[in-house]
Design goal:
By secondary structure, the chain is α/β, with parallel strands linked by helices. The protein contains 22 helices and 13 strands. Among the domains are: 83 residues, Gyrase A, domain 2, CATH 3.30.1360.70; 92 residues, no CATH class. The strands form four sheets. It has a four-stranded antiparallel β-sheet with strand order 1-2-4-3, covered by helices on one side. Strands 6-5-10-11 form a four-stranded parallel β-sheet, sandwiched between helices. The structure holds arginine. The site of arginine has 9 residues, from α12 and β10.
Length: 582
């Protein structure tokens, strides 16, 4: 294990247990502080338990603490804190663990089968920024969990079923686009998905004959009428082609094999209801079949229903989600389920999870979680929309991001070919958008601001990407013998900035685990930003190529190389590329 704080925690826990007459386990509460590389604060709670003075207990703890190989002499400070400074040679030794492709990140102690439900846009509708957030956050979590050795199953719970499909199919018919082979024509006609949806909606609202046909169409569709199904499938195919293209452009890891739309569960909905009924979990309420999971109440304290089957016999969003939950646990073998969905759907999801618990699908061995996120706001603080008030189209957003990044790249570099400029601008533009989303606390709303996300300073992807490229360029410029000798064994730490950089590098493992375990990509972003800042301080204080002594030069080059690899690895977990030249 390379993380010095984790090593100190282990040692301190052992020492604390030795001081307790019952040998009880204690949390040593080890954290970095302003005054020391690590501060052990556990003596305070232990003193309380033993009824002794905290400073005395801290003194005994120092005596019992076996950290000579890692730290300089421990110091007791304040009411009973223990300040530890890591030894330079110990830090250099620990860096050896960072040289694998895993950059020192330990695999998860217990690998799980994790279903990550994310993206989930709706057929025949434009993906909105909420879906963009789900896509970006879900992808970062899926990548990070897979990196830790979990078996990750991506599930794109596409909205491809429900009452709107009656009017959408009728509108398709009226537009004369019913020939399944004319894929190109369809794509063109439905390419403006929102316009298509709005037109269908407008006719539904104003033309009674159309509305009547639409209702009949839903019935036919749900009854499995082959022609209705064929027409519906055209809509699904046009939409998924469009979404898949968006995923490719966004460089997210969702593939066609990950689509598991709501309609996938059509054939099992009767069975799911039968099972819930047999378990006594459903009651008829106004003709509808409802579950009333305990603990969910309306404003007046009345129990809230989860409508499993509507009075007209139709199934809705809740039924599908119940079927999906059962499938994920029973058939996919998930032991961990993450639903990366906007905060407004919290009650719906929690009710579905509660019914899943009542039904016995989910027990204590299974972790089901709503990974919620806030809204995307424009710079005016209102919901993020185009100037005309429409949903921002993903394709246009990507184009704008890459276009703006191109301006940035062109202003800075002069030795890239056109293709390289395009490639780098794509990496930076996408990186900026993704990182802006990931680096803010996901449950909060976040403000979409081009200038801030593309800034070359501050906690942004471009800052990290440029820092990474500068490290690569130093390595490329180094004398070949120096570069070849700049392995981790060459690291000799003497300067404070080198010490701090090494310490930052060794924090990678903890940051990745926290990101995955607590579902907080922003924790990893903050880490990468602090690492890049520690590097900047190091670079300003410690000449690398200009160091006269080859031993020093090679040591510093090795630090550059390690920092570049940790930065690239961390960005990759977030779904962001780190070009070597910008
Ligand atoms: N399609 C839904 C929407 O656009 C999101 C689905 C989220 N996943 C789920 N299992 N309910 O709001």
């Amino acid at each position: 294990m390379a993380d010095p704080l984790a090593l100190i925690s282990e040692r301190a826990a052992t020492a604390m247990a030795a001081l307790d007459p019952d040998g009880a386990p204690h949390d040593p509460v080890v954290r970095p502080s302003q005054h020391a590389d690590a501060q052990v604060n556990g003596a305070l709670a232990l003193a309380k338990r033993l009824g002794r003075s905290p400073r005395d207990v801290a003194g005994d703890l120092v005596a019992a603490l076996d950290v000579d190989d890692l730290c300089l002499t421990p110091e007791v400070a304040g009411p009973g804190f223990i300040n530890l400074t890591l030894r330079d040679d110990a830090l250099a030794g620990l860096l050896g663990d960072l040289t694998s492709d895993r950059c020192g990140v330990r695999p998860a102690a217990e690998p799980h089968t994790v279903v990550v439900d994310y993206s989930a846009p709706n057929v025949a509708k434009e993906m909105h920024v909420g879906h963009l957030r789900s896509t970006i956050i879900g992808d970062a979590l899926a990548r990070t969990l897979a990196f830790l050795g979990h078996h990750v199953i991506r599930q794109n719970h596409l909205g491809d079923w429900g009452t709107p499909f009656g009017m959408l199919v009728e509108h398709l018919v009226d537009s004369g686009l019913t020939d399944g082979d004319a894929a190109g024509t369809h794509a063109a006609a439905v390419s403006d998905l929102n316009a298509f949806y709005k037109a269908a909606r407008a006719r539904f609202d104003t033309d009674p004959e159309f509305a009547e046909r639409s209702r009949a169409r839903v019935v036919a569709l749900q009854a499995g009428d082959p022609d209705s199904r064929r027409l519906w499938r055209i809509l699904v195919e046009v939409s998924t082609t469009y979404f898949s293209d968006a995923y490719d452009r966004l460089e997210v890891s969702l593939t066609d094999g990950d689509y598991a739309g709501e309609s996938t569960y059509n054939d099992v909905l009767d069975d799911v209801v039968a099972e819930l009924e047999a378990k006594g979990l459903l009651v008829t309420d106004d003709g509808a079949l409802c579950a009333f999971p305990p603990g969910f109440e309306g404003r007046e304290g009345e129990p809230l229903p989860l409508i499993v089957r509507k009075a007209d016999g139709g199934y809705g969003y809740a039924a599908t989600d119940l079927a999906a939950l059962r499938h994920r646990v029973r058939d996919l073998g998930a032991t961990e389920l993450l639903y990366v969905v906007g905060a407004p759907q919290h009650d719906h999801l929690e009710m579905v999870f509660a019914v899943g618990r009542q039904a016995g699908w989910v027990d204590d061995t299974i972790d089901v979680e709503h990974v919620a996120f806030g809204s995307v706001l424009g710079e005016d603080g209102k919901m993020f929309r185009t100037r005309a008030g429409d949903t921002v189209k993903l394709a246009e957003l990507v184009d704008e991001a890459v276009g703006r990044a191109r301006t940035l790249v062109e202003a800075k570099s002069n030795d890239l070919t056109d293709d390289e400029v395009t490639d780098v601008a794509t990496a930076i533009g996408l990186g900026a958008v993704k990182y802006a989303d990931l680096s803010s606390d996901r449950v909060k709303d976040y403000v979409f601001a081009w200038d801030r996300m593309l800034a070359l300073t501050g906690n942004t992807a471009p800052y990290l990407q440029y820092a990474h490229a500068r490290m690569c360029s130093i390595l490329a410029k180094a004398d070949p013998d120096d570069a070849a000798s700049a392995t981790v064994d060459a690291v000799r730490i003497t300067e404070a900035a080198e010490h701090d950089l090494a310490l930052a590098l060794l924090g990678f493992d903890a940051a990745v685990h926290a990101c995955a375990d607590r579902r907080v990509p922003h924790r990893l972003c903050t880490y990468l930003y602090e690492l890049a800042s520690a590097y900047t301080t190091f670079y300003e204080a410690c000449p690398v190529l200009r160091a006269d002594d080859p031993v020093v030069r090679r040591s510093r080059l090795a630090l550059c190389r390690l920092t570049a690899s940790v930065l690239a690895c961390g960005l990759d977990l977030l779904g962001i590329r780190a070009p070597t030249r910008v």
